[in-house]
TrEMBL record:
<dbReference type="InterPro" id="IPR013217">
    <property type="entry name" value="Methyltransf_12"/>
</dbReference>
<dbReference type="InterPro" id="IPR029063">
    <property type="entry name" value="SAM-dependent_MTases_sf"/>
</dbReference>
<dbReference type="InterPro" id="IPR029058">
    <property type="entry name" value="AB_hydrolase_fold"/>
</dbReference>
<dbReference type="Pfam" id="PF08242">
    <property type="entry name" value="Methyltransf_12"/>
</dbReference>
<keyword id="KW-0808">Transferase</keyword>
<protein>
    <submittedName>
        <fullName>Methyltransferase domain-containing protein</fullName>
    </submittedName>
</protein>
<feature type="domain" description="Methyltransferase type 12">
    <location>
        <begin position="305"/>
        <end position="401"/>
    </location>
</feature>
<keyword id="KW-0489">Methyltransferase</keyword>
<dbReference type="GO" id="GO:0032259">
    <property type="term" value="P:methylation"/>
</dbReference>
<dbReference type="GO" id="GO:0008168">
    <property type="term" value="F:methyltransferase activity"/>
</dbReference>
Length: 522
């Protein structure tokens, strides 16, 4: 094989390059969702290999202009083979759990024994779904949602057995980033070092074979930093405005969201013991969201991720509908999570995690979910729309995202009381419904908003109720009201009727792909 031809411009490209993603064997284009949403400042194209199409898919055309080739596992080898035929080469390469040779040989002793590949090919022809699912389980993933396309799967297994494109890697003249996991069961460290000659590999300690699913933040941060260092980031990205582009800019931003998360967790933790006494509206909203979820097409034993469980109001209601679910229950407050754990009695598999849902870091459980749900929690995200997009990236094919949260227009009476008194409200800004409606791109969606009036009986009761549930964080750039100013606001609020309304948005999104569970059952 000849070495890769030089890129027309090995120096920084004049225009922002398009990121071209290729998934590995036995997966689909949705594999990249969690990484892509974190790199949305770049134009992107994700290639679908068609492993779960009814017939082999035609090769997709690549976009014009500069490209960055990003391949996972076999996806990297496939890009090497395909782009070797292209006159203009990518201006950068990224390999994640990747290799330029897979099958063992005299000069590649740490590769996979060709007999194992031949045995896999033989079994594939008899039972493709079982072979694919066994491979995915070995990688740490769930079974595939669709029926496998035998022709494409077999073709690519033979390519893994035959191809040796290490010369393309050795002869590259453009930048390359290689990421790997020290606990990868498919491409172990010794194999990876030989399979990507002359490449320094950035290792994630204890990382497995599915790094884009296991550690999307880690992957995206390194890709963004790599591209910024080589002059291939959009202007805003290079300045650290869109995503963390280098270790130097990463630490302050990470401290910022962790500090916010800690503050919110502390406030809600302090209210954990008496939360349920004050959570009338929260219970009402959870009940209405649970009723919507109960009507969704979900498997009998769904993999459920809950964001911001509180004391378990929604969790308990869903437990009645899904007695044998696989639960991952999270909250930013350890005290709230402990309260939920003491009270809940759920069937199936249950794990509890202290986690900021806006920056999900999941370990020791599913990597994708049939249902991701949240009630009265996402309003605390710094960017609820962006947070929704991150969560949607964790959905399995045909999975559902179901949330309820207060939106712009909530507490309008309390706001009006401030304005009447000539003061600026200190409330956190609630998201606009139109921003949330489009947060998950082209996913199928249902979205409705309702007003719930809380006859709280006056300003002091209203404030005690907020404190009772821990909802006391205020707009960051405002100063606390003086006692005299607060008395004026309370007087105006009571004069207007002493009631307050919540504008609650219920959002239901469904990821495309896979068969519906009703179709599967039939």
């Amino acid at each position: 094989m000849s070495a890769a031809r030089p890129c027309a411009a090995a120096a920084p490209a004049r225009e922002t390059p398009t990121l071209v993603f290729a998934h590995g064997w036995g997966f689909d284009a949705g594999f990249w969702d969690a990484v892509r949403v974190r790199l949305r400042a770049w134009p992107q194209r994700v290639l679908e290999r068609g492993y779960f199409a009814s017939r082999p898919m035609p090769e997709e055309a690549l976009p014009e202009g500069p490209l960055v080739a990003i391949g996972h596992s076999f996806g990297y080898l496939h890009l090497l083979e395909r782009l070797a035929r292209r006159r203009t080469q990518p201006c950068a390469w990224v390999s994640i759990n990747g290799f330029a040779r897979f099958g063992a040989g005299d000069d590649f002793p740490h590769g996979v024994d060709p007999r194992l590949i031949r045995r896999m090919l033989s079994r594939l022809s008899a039972s493709p779904a079982a072979v694919v699912d066994e491979f995915r389980r070995r990688c740490g993933s769930s079974p595939a949602a669709g029926a496998p396309c035998l022709a494409t799967l077999a073709h690519d297994l033979r390519a893994m057995q035959a191809l040796d494109l290490r010369d393309h890697v050795r002869g590259r003249v453009v930048p390359m980033l290689a990421l790997g996991g020290t606990a990868d069961p498919v491409v172990p460290a010794r194999m990876a070092a030989q399979a990507l000659p002359a490449c320094g590999i950035d290792w994630l300690r204890d990382g497995g074979h599915l790094l884009p699913l296991e550690a999307p933040d880690w992957c995206a941060t390194r890709i963004a930093g790599f591209l910024a260092r080589h002059g291939m980031a959009p202007a805003a990205e290079a300045e650290g405005q869109a995503f963390l582009a280098s270790p130097a800019t990463e630490a302050p931003a990470r401290r910022s969201w962790r500090s916010r998360s800690c503050d919110i967790g502390t406030r809600f933790g302090a209210a954990a013991g008496g939360y349920d006494r004050h959570a009338g509206i929260q219970r009402q909203v959870a009940s209405r969201l649970a009723a919507r979820i109960a009507r969704l097409d979900l498997p009998e034993r769904p993999r459920i991720l809950e964001i911001g469980c509180g004391t378990g109001l929604l969790t308990r209601m869903l437990g009645e509908h899904f007695p044998e679910a696989d639960w991952t229950i999270t909250d930013v407050s350890s005290a709230m999570l402990a309260q939920a754990r003491r009270r809940l009695r759920l069937g199936g598999v249950t794990r509890y995690r202290v986690m900021d849902g806006e920056n999900p870091g999941l370990e020791g459980g599913p990597v994708c979910f049939d249902l991701i749900c949240s009630s009265m929690a996402l309003q605390w995200f710094q960017d609820p729309a962006q947070g929704l997009a991150r969560l949607a990236a964790l959905l399995a094919p045909a999975g559902h995202l179901a949330v309820a949260l207060p939106v712009d227009g909530t507490f309008s009476e309390w706001r009006l009381a401030h304005e009447t008194a000539g003061l600026r409200p200190r409330m956190i800004p609630f998201p606009r419904p139109e921003d949330l409606r489009m947060a998950c791109g082209r996913m199928a969606a249902r979205f409705d908003v309702e007003r719930i009036v809380d006859e709280c009986g006056g300003a002091l009761a209203f404030l005690r109720g907020l404190k009772g549930v821990g909802a006391t964080a205020s707009r960051a750039e405002t100063r606390p009201l003086s006692p005299a100013a607060l008395r004026r606001v309370c007087a105006e609020f009571d004069r207007a009727g002493g009631r307050c309304s919540y504008l609650i948005a219920y959002g239901l999104w469904r990821r495309r792909g896979g068969r519906t569970h009703k179709e599967t059952a039939s």
